[in-house]
Amino acid sequence: MEKIIHKLIRRLNRKMAIKFGLQIQKHAKAISRASLPKFANTPENLLIELPRRIINPDRMFIGNDVSIGPDSFFIAMTHYPTKNMEGREKPERYQTFDSKIVIGDRVTATANLQIAAQKEIIIEDDVMFASNIHINDGLHGYSSAETPYKSQPIIRISPIVIKKGCWIGQNVIVFPGVTIGENCVVGANSVVTRSIPNQCIAIGNPARVIKKWDRDKQEWLSTDSKS
Prior knowledge:
Blueprint (H helix, E strand, L loop, with lengths): L1 H33 L12 E2 L3 E4 L4 E3 L4 E2 L3 E5 L2 E2 L14 E2 L3 E4 L4 E10 L2 E4 L4 E9 L2 E2 L13 E2 L4 E3 L4 E2 L4 E2 L4 E2 L4 E2 L4 E2 L7 E5 L2 E8 L4 E4 L5
Parallel strand pairs: 1-4, 2-5, 3-8, 4-9, 5-9, 8-10, 9-11, 10-14, 11-15, 11-16, 14-17, 15-18, 16-19, 18-20
Antiparallel strand pairs: 6-7, 12-13, 20-21, 21-22
């Protein structure tokens, strides 16, 4: 009899846990919206799903009707190293930054969108991100192999612009100084190290243009361009 009672309790607990989980899922978007931090502006109908990390939101300008999936990480850096990146000994000198992140209207991301700005990152209207996208306008220094890389300065800091209407595929990395032109497609697993002209399809590591849109023919044309 005791075994039967324990079995019933386990079943009840499991049912209660499932019911509780469904209730959380039902209200997740409302909770995500209600718990948003204060940004530099006041966007309308903004959703950045939980869990998320947003550091220095007062340096971020977000458009209306933006929808970002869970596990996003946005940071507009003011100094480096941050506390969690300090080594055993604190540096004598910190880098300081006047950073800004700008996201336009109706931008969407499936999940795990990472944006780190030391200078400026601009994402224009109607950009569509898949999952696991990394955008950083600076790189960790690596001038010495005898010092932990987390203790070396941020280098190659240069603004990034992703222009309106782009589609950025799964697992894409965008490097400092890159401008991705209007209505471009960047294929999955690409590493964008150089700028891409308007209305192009680019793939690879490093990403290269493989097709351009022909307005007269209204179709994509293959190209041997390495730009």
